[in-house]
Every structure is written in structure tokens, then in C-alpha cells.
Amino acid sequence: MRIRVRLNGRTVEHDVEPRLLLVHFIRQVARLTGTHVGCDTGNCGACTVLVEGKAVKSCLMLAVQADGKDIVTIEGLANGGGLHPVQRAFIEKFGVQCGYCTPGMIMSACALLASIPSPSEFEVREALEGNLCMCTGYEQIVDAILHASTLDRGHGGPRRAPQAPHGRLGHGPGDPGRASGTTEAGHGR
Amino acid sequence: MGDSTRPLESDGVFVTSQWVGAAVPRREDARTVQGQARYVDDIDMDTAHVAFVRSPHAHARITAIDTRDAEASPGVLAVMTGRDVAAATNPVAPRGITASVTQYVMAVDKVRYAGEPVVAVVAGTQYLAEDAAARVHVDYEPLPPVVEIEEALAEGAPLVFEEAGTNVLLHDAFEHGDVAGAFRGADLVVKETFRMPRFSSTPLEPWAIIAQWDPGTGAFVVWSNDQQPGRTAINVSRTLRVPIDKVRYIIPDSGGGFGIKLAVWPYIVILCLLARRAGKAVRWIQTRSEHLLAGTHTPEALIEAELALARDGRFLAIRVNSKENDGSFVHTAGIYPLIKFAVIVGCYGIRATAFEFSTVVTNKAPTVQNRGVGKPGMTFVLERLVDLAARALDLDPAEIRRRNFVRPEQMPYTTPTGEVYESGDYPECLRRALELAGYDEWCRKRDALREEGRYLGVGIAAGIEPGTSNLGYYYISRGRPDFLGSVEGAMVGADFDGGITVVTGSVDAGQGHATTVAQVVADMLAIRPEQVSMSTHFDSATSPFAPHSGTYANRFNDVELGAVVAATRKLRAKMLRIAAFVLGVHERSLALRAGTIHVEGDPTKAVSFQEIAAYAYKKALLLPEEIEPGLREIAYYQNRAAKVPRREEFNIQLTHANAVHVVVAEVDVATGFVTLPKYVIVHDWGRQLNPGIVKGMVIGSTVHGIGAALYEEFLYSPDGQLLTGTFMDYLKPVALTVPRFDLGEMESPCPTSPLGTKAVGEGGAITSLPAIANAVEDALRPFGVTVTSLPITPEKTLRAIRGARVI
How many Å lie between the alpha carbon of A123 and the closest alpha carbon of chain B? Predict the structure, then answer.
């Protein structure tokens, strides 16, 4: 099936097998490897991305279900140079150890801060319930997100979910943002 | 920054005190938060993919394997059975056990656990490899499985390894001090049987390997997230029958280790064979289901223990009989019971110890050294006995500990088995923890709330966190110590432009080693950490690694930094020699400042690192003959406190941190759920090099313990099927179920580690188990419940409240 998604502001169009998972589309077709896979069952949240501004576990969605949707991954946060405030806060508060959960944690945090700009500690912990971290014991991650909620935003965050810079995806055939060079079937590496 | 400088003393380590001890932000993180970290599966390389056919049976004979359909499947490049693998490899080498058994890295003729790899398939994509694996037909003749410890020990039990004639692959007993006399003279003996669950710290990134073979040279390149490349190099080359130089190991970013990635190497052997067979680089990314099913776990343990006491509460002796279910991996079998010795007396001055153990094999998954390795279980048992004794003697749990602690004036203190506690003030650590927790107030609150039908309990536990294994202990029962002590290597050099580069033998799986190393080197050379370059990736082709190299047993802060300090000293000495020559003065009159070496008292007479590097490389002809060109120094370091093991006296580990945890637990007696409204940790880390990193280690480790104490267990059905095989049912702590932690400060520098540091990575996972258990038991005192097992699940708690009286 041919699908077209808006990925970090860029249009990507590709033939995919119906069974291809969105996370494998992101990692193997679009070659954005910041989105990770930590389990098979949608529990760990390492694969969390924003779909239409909402945090979604990309291992629980098929690529074909993302057709026509606007997706932001961890690589799409630091547009225009500087780090997103949530990214900065994770560094400042030692919210990273092995880093494998970090992209998913940050995407969940962005979704949270878009709906609750100044969350309580409880609200942060509740919002992270779908994201497992095996290293930190969560405290420095929670502190980072609370800290991010006080930071001034340079661009995009933290007070609203990051959006693709060119707005919503159109379905016209001549979309100028179309990616090139990805023509073979979906799950190749 | 970089302000000069004390004069260089001959044995001085640091010339500035700007960076060591400061919460310097981690240099690793800018990449990570942008999704630019590179884990194995992120490597952009044309590879084929591997899928494994795994045994559906816990114990069965393989009667036939038909791979023809799989070989004809689209995109398939190679198929290998266990027999193919065995024909090309040596069997797995055991370490601890004395029984003679044969096991290969894949199942041959017989499967010993559900999930054991039987056939490996290589195809063009991951999806095609899995399709083809589903077309392999294996016929099994099921055998009666042996699942639990008691079954394995029963008369006439089926044998996991027939050639051993028994399911006990190692049995031994040690006695130090007059144990029988102490028990005869005791006023009170507290005795209980405890069960430790089978669990795992489950790194978020499962195992991952890419292997490439060069037909021209016959050499392999392996990318993996292995955490112990030194031993892996030995194991793989021995098993694969190739010299060590024929396999190059590259370890990129690694998504957590916790010991679980010490057992990746058997799969590296398989991947190398597949790469050679397929004629193409191959990639295997373990799924979470595979990880939970087949690799790897902490063994569960059945531990009988008794503590002899005098009337005044003094501990006289301890006797332990431990049986571990080591599953079915002979390489690691026997390690857990042996390492328990390190903490058999905990923080206490017990002078007589007896320890008997059996390493039992069953049809459960392989085991490996998970965070803390046996010490969480031993500390759980000891600290539970202490609380049971306090209750029997009507003593406050804090008071009975106070009466028995090794006292600060006894340091360094040698335990009956030969473990040396170098420093520490255990009573003060307890005092601080109780004060920080508001212990008396919580005890009053507990009593008051009980009137309202709320059940709170206050738990105390004191634990030792050893660091740096003296690896000879693995072999103590076999009597042929092979790996001794702990050695690490480092290379520190100045590049052609004067920048400083460090290469070590360690693997970073989230510990921030490069950040900490840069802090240390910066203060040794009076530069900024940013001027120190260190890759977070390991490469055996460039690393001066040793057979012990890797990140395990809390050895980074000791031997790895020891090697870095030693190499930096050598580099500094050479730079001073070159500077003295260039400036025409004696080395002793020189000082370092901000990337230069200058004449002390006259910063204008200076030469920059860049210029020194130019003399070392580009202008070496100008140097006097006795100064060798080049500016790269390699040093190897070992902790010299290690003893060559003898049964009468040996030390298992070489540094000893300690901690006190004070926990308040509330049990909802309607649901059985436990919450932890207060959690205090005072951990004596010797000296902190980076408080931001240390805090994360202490808390993260403690949360591993909370998981093991309250949630996590690999449960098996009677026929040996794993029942908790996903994160749906193998429950991990989440942000909402862990408390906010109060951390106290305590620093008793370690005299035998190069910078005074002690371990921080495992202590939380050790001391938290009994602290939580003690708190829950205290909360359920009105119901007369005793906690003898973990995890303390709602189901077990409700059963105990409703009549069983035992968790």
C-alpha cells in the first residue's frame, strides 16, 4: 500500500506492506532511529511519538494507519538549532542514564505539557505511566519535566505539542515536501 | 576554571579542584535527547536478519529437524541447527561448578528450557526471517520437566544433564570461626526459611548483535551491547575456535546492562557462525519476549538461616544453607551462592559463620549476574533475621543494629571469611537515616493510624554494597583460581593539536563514564572537561582492555579510574619533561594552568599543550635523545587489596560501601497493595565525583529493589512454561508506584580505591529488599504476619492477612 505521512515537517511517501508497524516505518524506512523498541506489547513506551499532537506508541500502530497523519519524532523537536526546553531540562536535571527510554519519555512529556502546561508532580508521574525507565528510578526524569514546565520556550514547547512547521498534510499529488530515494518495499533496512 | 595550581607534589593526583565533586552535566546527553544516540540496531549497515526457532518444551528430546521449507522460503540465506553449531564450536566453559557437563550455545539433541534456541534462520529482512523460522519443523519427544528446586533435589528426579548424575552441579560448605560453640552458648536462636524470587533488572534495550565476516582474512567484526568485552573475547574465541585477534568487538551505546548483558556472548558465537555461513553481515535484535523467556534471570533461592544471639541482643554466629535454582546455563551456575559470602555478616561484628550451598539446575531459563548478584538475597535474609531477633528480644530494630554494628574504630575490619571493610561509620549512617526519616515521629504516627484502621509500618535495613570483584572467588570450590583480582587498562594521550584523548576498557551502559573521566582528567591537567575527548563506544581494536574489562561489580570508580589516573600521571610527567626542556628550567619549578605549563610564579614563561604536542610529534627531532617521541600513555591498574583465594580466608570484593534505608510502608488490607509514603537512603559513597550521576545511580538501583520486593517474579507452570513472559504480567515499577526519595550525605573515603570512592550502583538493589520487607511486616504486626519471601504481592499479602500469616 502506498502511504504518505508528514514526518517532522517533511512529507514521506512510500509503498509499505500492510503488516509493517509504524515504528519500523519510522526506523527502517525513514531511517529515524531515535524512536526505540523496548517491548512487544505496548508497555514500555520507548517508541512513543506524537501523531496529530497526541502521544502514541508507534509499535501499536500500523504504518498504513498513519496515512495522511502528522507525526513528530524525537528528531523533530530541536528544529531551528536550539534544544527544546524538555530536552534541555533532561540534560540539566540528569534525567538521562542509558538513554534508551529518553526519546519516548520526552515525547510523552511534550504531550503532557501541551495539555497541562504546569503539571503537579502527581500529574507528571501519571502521564509517564506508559513509559518504563529501568535506570533512573524516575525521580530525575520527573524533576526534568517539572523543570521544563517552568522554562521559557524558544520554539514549539513546552506549552504546546510540537507541530510540523508547515501545518497539516495535504493529500495533493504534487506535495513539494515529498521525500525521495525510498522506493523499495517497506521493511528493508 | 583551570586556575593554577598547587605545586606538583610527586604523588599528587589533582592540580585543580574545579571539576571532581561537581554536578557537571553529562556530555553523553545532548545526543541522546535528540535521538542521535547510536545503539546496535541504529547502525546503518546492510545486513541480513536472524530469527531463532525456540523450544516450546521445557525438557524434550529433539527427534527430527526438517529445515527444507524454511530454506526454500523467500529471502532465506542460511539455516543452522544446534548440531551444525556444535560441529563448529567448543562446548560452553563452566566457571563455578565442579560437576562435568557438556552444553553448547544452541540446543543439541535435547532442549533444557522453554525458549532454548534450536535452529537459527538468516533472511533478507526481519519479517522474512520470522516467516521462514515458522516453517522449520522440529519433532520433540517431551521429557518430564524439573522446574522447582525441591523437584530437582527429589530422589529419582529427571536429570537436566544426564552426564552429571545429579541436578546439583556444585555443593560446598565453609565454616569460619567457632560456629558450633557460638550456637551452643547462645541465649536465643532465630531461625527461618526464606525464598528469593526469580527476577531481572531487564535493561530496556534487549540484547543486540551484528556480526560481519571477512572471507579474505577470516576475521569477524562484532557490534553488540555486551557489557564485559574482556571475558567475552576469551569466551568467544575459545568457543568459536579462533584466536582473540580474529574477532573485533565494537560496543556502541547500550541501553542498560545491570549484569543481564554479561550473557550475550553465546549469541555472539552463533551470529559469527551465521555471518560466515550466509556470507553476509547478520543482525539479531532480541525481542522483549525472547529476553524475558530466554535470557536471562536472577536465580530464585531457598535459604535456611539461623542467627545465634546473646540475651543482650549481640549476634554471635550465623549459619546459612542456600539452594539456588540456576536454571540451565553452566557458564554462570554456582556464582550466586559463592558471592553471597561477601555480605554474610552484613554491617555486623559477627565472628563465626557457616555457609553451605547447592547450585541446582532445572528446566528454567539461564541465569546471570543481575544487579547485586546474590547479595540482595543474603542481605534480605540477614536483615529479616535481625528484625525477627529484635522482636523476640523486645528491642527496637534500630537499637539491636546499633549494638551489633562494626564500630568505626575497628576499621579496617576483616570479617571471618576474609572480606576487608576498609572504612565507614555504620552507627552514624543509621543515626542520620533515622533523623532524616523522622523515625520516632513515624513510629508514633503508625501507632495512631492503627486506631483508625490504617496499617503503616516502619522498616530499617543496613547493608553492605561491595564493589570490584576479586574474580578468583568464582573458582574457589574448584580449587583452581583462574581469573584473579581485577585489572583495567586506559590510554591517555595528547593529540597532535594538544587536545587530550582517553580510551578505556569499559563499556558505558548509562553510567556516564566519559563525563566522570573528563572531570578527573581535567583536574589532573588543569584544563576544562570539554577539552578531554572520550568516546562512549568501546572498540577492542583501539582499547587497551584486559580480560577483566567491562562494566560490572561497581569497578569503574576503582580500577578503571585507577587506570585513567595512572595513564594521566604518565602523560603529565612526560609533558612536564618536554615543557622543562622547552622552557629551559627544572621540572620541579613548573605548574599547570589552563592548557599550559608555566614556570611557577611567572605565568608568562609558559608553553601550551599544543606546543608541547608539536614537540612530541612534529618537531620531535628537536627533543633530546632521552625523550621518546609521542604523547600517548597506556597504564594498567589493579586493586592490590585482592587476596589469592584460600578456603580459610578470601575476599570476594575489594571495596565496601554501606547504606541504611528507612522505609515507611502502608498496606491496604482490603486490596493487599503496598505503598511507600516515605523512603530515606543514607549511602556512604566514600567520595562523590559527580553528585548528579551518583544520585541517579542510588535511586535507580533502589527502584530495582522495589520491583523485586513488590512486583517482579518469573513464574513458571508445573510443566516449565514461563507464565510472566511480557511486561503485561512481569510488572516493573512505574513513575506512579515509586516514591520520591530523601537522600542523606555520608562520605567515608575508601583508602584502597585511587580517589577514595566506593560503590553506588548496586547498593539500592541490595538494602531496599529487607527494608521494604521489614516495613511491611511491621505494618502487619496486628495480623501476626511474617515476611519470608518476595515479592510481596497483593495476593500473597491478602492470603497472609486472611489466615496464612506468612508472606
Answer: 9
CB B387 within 8 A of CB B194: no
Are the C-beta atoms of B335 and B373 separated by less than 8 Å? yes
d(CA A85, CA B796): 44
Whether B221 and B211 have beta carbons less than 8 Å apart is answered as yes
Among B620, B638, B656, give the residue marking a domain's end: B638
Tell whether B512 lies on the interface with A, counting CB pairs under 8 A: yes
3-state secondary structure B396-447: CHHHHHHHHECCHHHCCEECCCCCEECCCCHHHHHHHHHHHHCHHHHHHHHH
**Cell of residue A189, nine digits:** 533496512
pLDDT, tens digit, for every residue of B453-497? Answer: 999 999 999 999 999 999 878 788 888 778 889 999 999 999 999
- 8 Å CB contact between B735 and A138: yes
Element housing B110 (H / E): strand B110-111
Q: Tell me how far apart the alpha carbons of residues B161 and B148 are, in angstroms, rounded to a whole number.
A: 16
Q: Which residue of A has its CA nearest to B740?
A: A139
Q: A87 and B288 in contact by Cβ < 8 A?
A: no
Q: How far apart are CA A61 and CA A45, in angstroms?
A: 13
Q: Complex ipTM, two decimals?
A: 0.96
Distance from CA of B699 to the nearest CA of A (A): 6
* A 68-97 near B (Cβ less than 8 A): 73-75, 77-78, 83, 87, 90-92, 94, 96-97
- What ranges in B200-262 are assigned the alpha helix state H? 229-240
**Residue B202 main-chain phi, psi, to 5 deg:** 40, 75
**Beta carbons of B325 and B152 less than 8 angstroms apart:** yes
- CB contacts of A122 in chain B (<8 Å) are 736
What DSSP line would sit under A102-135, residue for residue? HHHHHHHHHHHHHH-SS--HHHHHHHTTT---SS
Burial B769-779 (b: 16+ CB within 10 A, else e): bbbbbbbbbbb
The rounded distance, in Å, linking the Cα atoms of B656 and B639 is 13
| Residue span of the structural domain in which B429 resides | 300-394+402-473+643-804
- B18: in domain: no
CA-to-CA distance for B174 and B172, rounded, in angstroms?
7
Q: For residue B528, which amino acid is it?
A: R
Last residue in a domain, options B253, B285, B317:
B285
Of all residues in chain A, what percent are helix, strand and coil, respectively (each to 5)?
Answer: 30, 15, 60
Chain B contact for A1 (CB, 8 A cutoff): no
Instruction: Supply the CATH number for residue B610's domain.
Output: 3.30.365.10
Residue B138 lies in a domain: yes
Q: Tens digits of per-residue pLDDT, B353-405?
A: 999 999 999 999 999 999 999 999 999 999 999 999 999 999 999 999 999 99
In this structure, the answer to whether residues B503 and B443 fall within a common structural domain is: no
Instruction: Report the CATH number that the domain containing residue B230 is assigned in CATH.
Output: 3.90.1170.50
How many cross-chain Cβ pairs, A to B, lie less than 8 Å apart? Answer: 191
The answer to the question of residue B53 being in a domain is yes
Question: Does some domain include residue B28?
Answer: no
b/e string for B358-378 if b means 16 or more Cβ within 10 A? bbbbbbbbbbbbbbbbbbbbb
The H or E element containing residue B128 is: helix B126-133
Pair (B618, B730) in one structural domain: no
Total residues belonging to chain A: 189
In whole angstroms, give the CA distance from residue B293 to residue B291: 5
Structure-block grid coordinates of residue B542: 583501539
Q: pLDDT of chain A along its 189 residues, tens only?
A: 999 999 999 999 999 999 999 999 999 999 999 999 999 899 999 999 999 999 999 999 999 999 999 999 999 998 777 899 999 999 999 999 999 999 999 999 999 999 999 999 999 999 999 999 999 999 999 999 999 999 966 544 444 455 544 433 433 333 333 333 333 333 333
